[in-house]
């Protein structure tokens, strides 16, 4: 079976999302917002990353951008001169990420020509793949090709790991708020509607 056929099976999506969830767990252990991702090309993970914004004190160090930087820095993954030709370095690459890419990351993904994005849960505050804005397929971004974004893979797990983070004390906050009375909610509402930009 060809790798493009493999990427379209539910078992393959689950396999890669589980790898992204492992990166989210690593982020949680490092006191970062628990978002993790893997970039897959030809049935192989070519990069994996997690949020590092607190660690690096840099708000742009989202999981997706961390992985993109790794890919672009590796000549084996992005041959020298490729970008100069106008080719998109991730045109044959699929991203699996635990949370919908934010507007910043969705724009970066479009600029590098990502093929497809699969994500766990929606990002209702900053989502760039339909929850807030549809950067992934907006006609107002005509220079770079649109990409498809599909939600719902490991959705419950992605929501729960975020909840686990947000009930803990954030030692990195300028003025940490006490969360001793917070209780971890385990009920997850079903999706009410599909984002309008899908």
From TrEMBL:
PROSITE patterns reported in the protein's UniProt record: CYT_DCMP_DEAMINASES_1 (PS00903), CYT_DCMP_DEAMINASES_2 (PS51747)
Gene3D superfamilies on file: Cytidine Deaminase, domain 2 (3.40.140.10)
Keywords per UniProt: Hydrolase, Metal-binding, Zinc
Keyword Disulfide bond: no
Sequence segments annotated as region (Disordered): 172-198
A GO cellular component entry from the record: cytoplasm
Organism of origin: Lactarius akahatsu
Domain CMP/dCMP-type deaminase: start-end pairs: 11-140
Xref: InterPro entries: APOBEC/CMP_deaminase_Zn-bd, CMP_dCMP_dom, Cytidine_deaminase-like
Pfam families in UniProt: dCMP_cyt_deam_1
GO molecular function per UniProt: tRNA-specific adenosine-34 deaminase activity; zinc ion binding
Biased composition (Polar residues): 172-183
GO biological process, any: tRNA wobble adenosine to inosine editing
Protein name as annotated: Cytidine deaminase-like protein
């Amino acid at each position: 079976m060809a790798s493009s056929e493999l990427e379209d099976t539910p078992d393959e999506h689950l396999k890669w999302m589980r790898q992204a969830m492992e990166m989210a767990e690593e982020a949680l252990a490092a006191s970062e917002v628990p978002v993790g991702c893997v970039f897959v090309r030809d049935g192989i993970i070519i990069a994996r990353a997690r949020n590092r914004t607190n660690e690096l004190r840099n708000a742009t160090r989202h999981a997706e951008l961390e992985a993109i930087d790794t890919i672009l820095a590796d000549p084996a993954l992005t041959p020298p001169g490729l970008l100069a030709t106008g080719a998109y370095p991730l045109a044959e690459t699929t991203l699996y990420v635990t949370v919908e890419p934010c507007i910043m990351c969705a724009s970066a993904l479009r600029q590098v020509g990502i093929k497809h994005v699969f994500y766990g849960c929606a990002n209702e505050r900053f989502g760039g793949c339909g929850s807030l804005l549809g950067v992934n397929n907006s006609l107002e971004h005509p220079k770079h090709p649109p990409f498809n974004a599909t939600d719902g893979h490991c959705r419950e797990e992605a929501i729960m790991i975020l909840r686990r983070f947000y009930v803990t004390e954030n030692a990195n906050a300028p003025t940490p708020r006490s969360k001793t009375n917070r209780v971890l909610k385990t009920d997850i509402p079903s999706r009410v509607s599909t984002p309008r930009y899908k």
